[in-house]
Amino acid sequence: SSPTDLWCVAQAFFYLLLCVPWGSSCPPSCQCTERAGAKAVLCSSRHLEEIPKDIPKDAVFLKLDANSITRIPSNAFRHLSHLEELDLSRNAIEKIDRAAFKGVAAGLRTLDLSSNRIRSIPKEALLALNAKLRLANNPWHCECALQEVLWEARLDPDSVQDITCHTAPREEYVGKPLLQVLDAGVNFCSVRQRTTDVAMFITMFGWFAMVIVYVICYVRHNQEDTCKHVDYLKSLPSTQGHAETTSTAL
């Protein structure tokens, strides 16, 4: 082949390299497809124990359901700025870090965390989320933190009745939908506030008692010193008696 032919082949190969979407490679355990012009990354039922690191940056739909993921670490999806739907249902998630959804909060529309092992979730993890949340079928511990999440989050109305109390401060709430408990007038945050107030009262009482004991000890100590000083003065020869003795002698 002539040098001209080789140059043409090299040039074609170079242009081919420019067209390859380097940032859009698909994780080996997932399947990447186009859905209405948007990239969908499907990683369902792949026996994953953690979130893949090499998810394409242009992913719009990400399905990680039916795996064995136990934790959502900080910045797990930070590079996925186009992400709109995230499905993490039917895993074994127990821990969600405070910055778990940092970087995707603004554009995320749907977040499915149902059917996991989540007992509590930090409010900070959901602060900037506008996504519709599915939190059903988790072993929730009904307390003030979960109540605050429900107050501030956008919950999926179709699944909100399935957010039930697996454990709670009082046995009568166990097994009941959290929304039903709150609608009955229960306020877990006021219980925590009362507990805090009692703890503060006990602490203040302890400090006050220490001050009183210190004052009593101080007064008693000064009284003892005063008594000793008086006894010492009484033991000294009287000045008046000494003066009479002197005048008699004269």
TrEMBL record:
It is a single-pass membrane protein. It is found in: Membrane. Residues 25-61 form the LRRNT domain. Keywords: Leucine-rich repeat, Membrane, Repeat, Signal, Transmembrane, Transmembrane helix. PROSITE patterns: LRR. InterPro entries: Leu-rich_rpt (IPR001611), Leu-rich_rpt_typical-subtyp (IPR003591), LRR_dom_sf (IPR032675), LRR_TM_domain-containing (IPR050541), LRRNT (IPR000372). The chain crosses the membrane at residues 198-219. GO terms for cellular component: plasma membrane. Residues 1-25 form the signal peptide. Belongs to the LRRC3 family. This is Leucine-rich repeat-containing protein 3. It comes from Strigops habroptila. The gene is LRRC3.
